[in-house]
Amino acid sequence: MSTYAQPISEQQSVVKSKSAPALNRPQSKLVIGGLIVTLALATFLLVTQHIVQPILLIIGLGLGYTLFHARFGFTSAFRRLASVGNGQSLRAHMMMLAVACTLFAPILATGFAFFGGDASGNVSPVGVSLLVGAFMFGIGMQLGGGCASGTLYAVGGGRSVMFITLFFFIVGSVIGAAHFDFWMEDMPTAEPFSLATSTGLGYGGALVVSLAIFGGIAWLTKVIEKKKNPPTEAPKPTISGWKRIFRGAWPLFAAAIVLAVLNALTLLTSESPWGVTYAFTLWGSQAADALGFDAASWGFWQGDEAALQTSIFTDTTTVLNFGVILGAFLASAAGGLFRFTQIRFKNAAASVIGGLMMGYGARLAFGCNIGAYFSGIASFSAHGYIWGIMALAGTFLALYLRPLFGLSVPKSKDSFC
C-alpha cells in the first residue's frame, strides 16, 4: 500500500520528486455519513444551545478540513527544522501568525464581537510553569505523533494510534488541573505581558513589532536552509482545477491564511480565540468527578466550578474540537484516504507517554500549540513566543528519544518522516 493511501498525519515523507501522486476515489458512503452526523449535531446545537454553538461547529469543520487538506503541522514543522533545517512549514506558521495578528489587532482594540460581549485575547502569565509545560509539550508532541490540533485531525483521518494519544492527552490534562495550585502558587510566576497593552505601543505598534519578528524568523529559516541544504517536502496527493478546493492538497501558505481567518472568526463569534485543550480538561474532569474525585476543589476550576455540572455542548472549545474531527474526517474521506491503521506496541507506548506529557504540559503552559502558540502570539502575548521557544527546545531533546520507540528521525536528504 502506498504512503498516500493511508491516513496522513503530521508525520510525512520528504523526497526529491516533484510529481504529485493522484488521489484515491472518494469514499462516498463515508462522506455522506459524515455529512449526516454533522447536520444532526448542528441541528442539536441549534435547538439546545445558543446560536454561537452551531456557528462554531461550522468554523471547526473548516479548521479540520483545512488542517487535513494541507497536512498543516506544528509537530512536523518543529521536527523538520530541528532535525535537518527544513523551515518551509515554519515559514507557513509565520504567514499564519502575520495574518492572524493583522486581523486580531482591530478586534482586540475595539473588543467587538458578533453577539455582543467583549472580545479578548489569550494573554497569560510568564513563569516556571510556562517554561516547564511548554518544554514537556514539545517532547510529548514528538512522541505522541501530533500536537493538540494534529491529534484531533489525525483521529478524524483514522490514524488509530492517535486515539491512544488523545485518551492520555485527556488524562494528562486532568492531572495537570489537579496540580494547578502547586505550579501557580508555589512556583515563581510573573504577570501576563502583552506587546500591545503592557508596553504602551498599542495594537498598531504591537502589530508592527510582531510583523518584524515574523519576518526575521522567516529570514532566519532561509539562512539555516542555505547552510544545511535540507530536502524539500514531498508533494501531496492532489487534483487539478476547482475540485482541488474539496479534494486536492492545499498549499501550506493558502492553508495558513485560511486558518488565520477562521481563528479571527472564532474570536468574533465566541469572544475568545481558538483553543483545544480546555475541552480535554473539561471532559476528563467531569469523568473524574463522576468517579468520585472532587474536581471542583482543584485550583484550575476555582471560579468556574459550574462548568463541571453543565453539558459539554455549552463549551465552545468542545464544539470546535468536534468540528475539527468531523472536518478532517470529511476531508480524508473525500480524498479516499480514510482507513484505520495498524498499531505497533512501541508506537502505542510513545502515544501514552506523549499524550500524558502534552496534557500535563498544556495545563502548566496555559495552552497548547493552538491556545498558547497560535492564539497567544496572535493576541500579542509574550507567553506565546516563550511557548514556541521552549517547545522547540523540547523537540530537540525528543529527537534523541524517538528512536527508542521505533519512530524515525530524518538524517539524510533522501528521507524525511
Walk me through the structure:
With about 425 residues, this protein is mostly helical. It has one domain (about 25-405). Helix content is about 60%, strand content about 0%. The chain has helices at about 30-50, 50-70, 75-85, 90-110, 130-145, 150-155, 160-180, 180-185, 200-230, 250-270, 275-290, 315-335, 345-365, 370-380, 380-400, and strands at about 125, 190. The protein has a two-stranded antiparallel sheet. α1 runs antiparallel to α12 (about 315-335), α2 (about 50-70) packs antiparallel against α10 (about 250-270) and α6 crosses α12 (about 315-335). Mean pLDDT is about 90; it is low at about 1-20 and about 410-415.
Per DSSP E runs of 2 or more residues, the count of β-strands stands at: 2
The gyration radius over C-alpha positions equals 20 Å
Provide mean pLDDT, rounded: 92
What kind of sheet is the major sheet?
2 strands, antiparallel
Strand content: under 5%
Which class best fits the helix and strand makeup? mainly alpha
Q: Provide the spatial order of strands within the biggest beta sheet.
A: 1-2
What is the general shape?
globular
| End-to-end separation | 17 Å
* Overall number of structural domains: 1
- Provide the succession of SSEs: HHHHEHHHHEHHHHHHH
Which residue ranges are poorly predicted, with pLDDT under 50 across at least 5 consecutive positions? Answer: 1-18, 412-417
Number of helical regions:
15
Q: What share of the residues lie within helices?
A: 55-70%
Pfam families: Sulf_transp
Transmembrane segments: 30-49, 55-74, 95-116, 128-154, 161-180, 200-220, 249-268, 319-340, 352-374, 380-401
Membrane topology: Multi-pass membrane protein
Subcellular location: Cell inner membrane
